[in-house]
Amino acid sequence: NAVVVGKVTIGDNVLIAPNAYVNFDVPSNSIVIGNPGKIIENRPDATEGYCHNLV
Question: Known Gene3D superfamilies for this protein (predicted)?
């Protein structure tokens, strides 16, 4: 489980890793890991291979 705290905006195509703690705005196409969370990479295929059965 990840924790997202406060009034933050999560962009499109964002991957938040398990156990990440996010208390900041995350731009689109980002990968966030860690506690405290930090953006390790911005890439257009951030969620490729992770997202299934999208509604």
Answer: Hexapeptide repeat proteins
